[in-house]
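Late entry, evening session. Most of the bench is empty. Finally got around to the prediction I had been postponing all week. Sequence below, unchanged from the version circulated by S.P.
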Amino acid sequence: MTETTTQERSARKIREGLVVSDKMDKTAVVAVERLKRHPLYGRVQRVTKRFKAHDEPNDCKVGDRVRIMETRPISRDKNWRVLEIVERAK
């Protein structure tokens, strides 16, 4: 009975990145950096992707290292939310 009523939720993606903008209300733009190997030449490249993350208490400041988690769409291009601030900007 509990197996059918309890739906298993798929694992949500979690990323860690740097806050590059906090000018919007309740939103932080987080730049997530990853290393990717070039398919032909094999050189390791640094790839940066920017995510808009929901920050309800407006705690994030530029330069903070934060952990974000994928969530339901909150606005047109905001599908992530700030889980925690890992490290404050110096």
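Two things to note before I forget:
The mean pLDDT is 93.
The domain at 8-87 is CATH 2.40.50.140 (OB fold (Dihydrolipoamide Acetyltransferase, E2P)).
Will write this up properly tomorrow.
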